[in-house]
Amino acid sequence: MTVNGQALGEPREQTVQLAFHSNQALKGVTLTLELPNNVELVPVPGASSD
After folding, report:
1. Model confidence over 1-50: pLDDT tens digits?
2. CB of 35 within 8 A of CB of 41?
């Protein structure tokens, strides 16, 4: 499939895990993800968003 001149693969689900290491507790942290075009995040049912 091609969208706006870019070849796209078949849609697929992929789990991505992030790990952080800190010598102290992290409070009030904000994480920003910049996703490539045609990539979206889908919430996990039952997971907290705060």
Report:
1. 566 776 667 777 778 787 878 899 888 888 888 888 878 877 777 777 66
2. yes
Closest CA to 40 of 19, 20, 11: 11
Nearest to 19 by CA among 27, 31, 6: 31
Which positions ≥6 away from 3 have C-beta within 8 Å? Answer: 38
Residue 49's contacts (CB-CB under 8 Å, 6 or more residues apart) are 43
| C-alpha to C-alpha distance for 39 and 15, rounded to whole angstroms | 13
